[in-house]
Write a structure and sequence with these properties.
Elements lengths: L16 H5 L3 H24 L7 H6 L2 E9 L2 E4 L12 E4 L12 E11 L6 E5 L12 E2 L2 H11 L2
Length: 157
């Protein structure tokens, strides 16, 4: 019987305690860059979410553009904001106002077109000018400086 002697190699691992305890500086830089990127995206989302965009064709096809406050179902009254023209009547009847999702008491920019006259002769009846967008409710716009800037750009006035 042959007995072979096996000797285990002597192996002494070299441990770098500093490297095991401290994360690599590159990791911190990557985490910092990622954090700044996320912060930038959050800031952009807050300040640029849902910008106002007027529908150019809707504005150009409108016979009357007014700023008015929704007073009830289907009616608006004049608002002094914006200095736009107003027809010679106290209230404007807007046939499709409920489809435009306007809230009572809120002031909006209304692109309108005349559809007829009131039966009692008190004034014209209007509708929010439809858009060419498929399956879309009539568009009305919040009263903001950007709204008037775009309106001026579209109408040239």
């Amino acid at each position: 019987m042959v007995v072979m002697a096996t000797a285990e190699p002597s192996f002494t691992p070299v441990l770098n305690v500093d490297a095991a305890v401290r994360p690599d500086r590159r990791l911190w830089i990557a985490l910092g860059v990622a954090g700044l990127w996320i912060l930038l995206l959050v800031i952009l989302t807050i300040f640029t979410a849902n910008p106002i965009t007027l529908n150019r064709i809707q504005i150009q096809e409108s016979t009357l553009i007014v700023v008015g406050t929704v007073t009830g179902k289907g009616t608006i009254t004049r608002s002094d904001v914006g200095g736009l023209a107003w027809p010679d009547q106290d209230e404007i009847v807007v046939e499709n106002l409920s489809q435009a999702k306007a809230r009572v008491g809120q002031t909006y920019l209304f692109p309108l077109r005349q559809t007829g006259r009131q039966a009692n002769g008190d004034g014209a009846i209007f509708e929010v000018t439809p858009t060419l967008l498929p399956d879309h409710s009539p568009l009305i716009y919040p009263v903001e400086p950007e709204t008037f800037a775009q309106l001026k750009e579209i109408t040239g006035a």
